[in-house]
Amino acid sequence: MTIGSDPSGIHDPYEAFRYEAFRLYAASYVLAVIGSQVLTATVQWDVYQRTKDPLAIGWVGLIGALPVILFALPAGHVADSFNRKRILLITQIPLALVPTILAVLQWWYPQGVSLIVTYSLLAANALTLTFARPARSAIMPNLVPRTAYPNAFAWMSSLFETASWVGPAVAGVLIAFGVPWSYLASALCLVGCFGLALFLPDIVPSEPTTREPGWRALSAGLRFVFGTPLMLAAMTLDLLAVLLGGATYLMPVFAERLGAGSVGFGWLRAAPAMGAFVMAVGQAHRPPNGRAGRTMLWAVATFGAATIVFGASQNYWLSLAMLVVIGASDNISVIIRQTIIQSLTPDAMRGRVSAVNQVFIGASNELGGFESGVTAKLFGPVMSVVAGGMGTILVVLGVAKVWPQIRQLRSLRELRPANDEVKVSDNP
């Protein structure tokens, strides 16, 4: 009998971890996320301390978004055409080199590395991540049976959030000893990720049901998403909510406003992930949600409301609490969205659909950082964050109105792959 198919119907909260390949994948993923989060938090702190300009942090967001927007579709096509493990291994090399170079430069030039050099290295990092993410995302569904998808995504989200609060917290402590040490810690984590990924099984994409030349093959994931209303609704909801409601890139500004040092900044930066971790563990131990769509809408609305309170708060502990609520509510949305995407996508298209998701979600995180930097420069950080939270609530109302499918979604276990031939070829 396959694990996860227990006819008694008893919920197994550790179903995904019964599989060795999933455990290995999860450990590699945790190191990758910690390394990435340490790098991001350190760059944000470093750039703001050198410039005291929120727009300088905003440029970091734009630099991270542009490679995703320009190259995500080719990256998804690559993930669906070649050995996904090999792609993952190749991309880990430059991802480890970037923080290593930043650490060395900081030691050589203690007065501060040129912003142009920093931005250039971040652009190389973002370009590499654009190709790494679809390959990594497309590997995971091949490691557990379909019945274990909700449990696996809940645990992956939990691990992501754990790593996302460990990373900034570690960065905050290490920055107190010197920025180069924080960059070096990021590099060591990514080297460890590479070592564990060596032992993952080779994942070769399934043969597509139809072969299309040129641009049609490249854009198949985009046409598939736009031809699947439920998936499009979930992605749009997260895209606009993160674009408007994200305050992460302004955290150095708010840490200064609240009178927190580097360690306090680290905990502020880690707080959303701490809330998300608690929520993800809770969701993994609960039976599947029977009203997934409405739950997702309420979660994003809560995200927006907590963002408003955070922006207006002048108390460190209230701000910290609101960031925990932001992370917890965002996690509910993330798990439901990821389960929808992976459950509705045929294996032959996972890389391309993951690439589209990367544009919707990954680019929106970075563009949200740029938007926050620009609006903070023009109207101040408080107005930037409060207005973004209000906009998020309006987005929830709009998505619920435009796509009734999201309101009607019940059990995630009932989702099955859409017919890729129909979805792709029906839209010229």
Produce a short descriptive summary:
The protein is mostly helical. 77% of the residues lie in helices and 0% in strands.
What would you report as the Rg, rounded to the nearest angstrom? 21 Å
Percent strand: under 5%
Looking at the structure, the CATH topology is: Growth Hormone, Chain: A
Sheet with most strands:
none
SS summary, helix count: 17
Uncertain spans, ≥5 residues at pLDDT below 50?
1-8, 420-428
CATH class: Mainly Alpha
Mean pLDDT: 82
Global geometry: globular
- Please give the alpha-carbon distance between the first and last residues: 44 Å
The CATH homology group name: MFS general substrate transporter like domains
Compressed to H and E, one letter per element, the order equals HHHHHHHHHHHHHHHHH
Q: Which CATH architecture would you pick?
A: Up-down Bundle
Helix content: over 70%
Task: Please provide the count of β strands.
Answer: 0
Helix-and-strand structural type = mainly alpha
**How many structural domains in the coordinates?**
1
